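Agenda item 2: pyridoxal-5'-phosphate complex prediction
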Amino acid sequence: MTVPRLRLAHLPTPLWHNSTLDELVGAEVWVKRDDMTAGAAAGNKIRKLEYLLADAQQDGATVLLTCGGIQSNHARATATLGRTLGLRSVLFLRCDDPNAPQRRSGNLMLDELLQAELRLISPEEYRNRQSVMAEAALELASDETPYIIPEGGSNGRGALGYVSAMAEVRAQLDLGLGPGPDGFDAVVSACGSGGTTAGLALGAAREAIAPRVIAMAVCDTSTYFQETIERILGEACALRQELRESADIDVYDAYKGPRYAVPSPEQVDFIREVAAKTGLITDPVYSGKALYGLSQLPADDKPQRVLFIHTGGLPGLLATPELMGFA
Ligand SMILES: *Cc1c(COP(=O)(O)O)cnc(C)c1O
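Presented output:
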């Protein structure tokens, strides 16, 4: 049985190459522009949501529940696509002080525009996000049909979005839109909840895109992500029997900067230099840290020809000028 999928993203996204970027990174970099998957719903989450929301519709869902940080791109994408399908969203957003006023900017402003229901929760509550959402779903179930989407849309079903993305890249390579049919030494992306990496690893093997997938962790540890990604791989393979092989997965946690959503001065300088010299805008939470990490890999570990997944993140960047050193 084929896994249901909705067509929500503007695909295929471009494969973008810029020789100045190659010099800044120290490798041949082909950027998969998944920052262009949509308008307000753009970024990597829409590919996962094509599968997750198809499942929600099959279940007859009327309300979506999901979670993330206060500037969650995933929560914003869910709220946006939910509205296009006639569904409301309840968003559980982590913030240090749930009672303090939060500036409605970036993703949070879009969440408000979409009239998503915002439930701000503390970091402690967020640790139990699964049970917090399960309890809320139970309450809503008296007069609505809730559908819970895990953090980042990262389960086996969501990961199928990045298996499909690798089939899309295969078609682009065969059409001569990339470096050639042989593919890449590695696929590189930011890693925040693991679903993108899991899908990339399965899709890269299946479509002969690359033998190696590099995940640049922006939070947690590489041990945590190895386990998480392993679980998601298992779930995805259970949904689609033909998926068996995975590319090698390397998770690096040395390039996440001071902590989640806080970049180092070196990362900020790199993001600014890439923007000013190439026109490529990356963000200080995910894509900029991942690209910086790639640039910093030691020569004996650095892949020469890279497919870099630009996962989006523009609304968060626009909401946090202070992170970029602007007053
Ligand atoms: C969510 C997100 C990621 C991380 O993807 P995961 O599948 O959660 O690991 C990377 N970049 C951006 C911009 C994101 O919003």
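Discussion summary: Residues 82 and 88 are 6 Å apart (CA to CA).
Owner for follow-up: CH.
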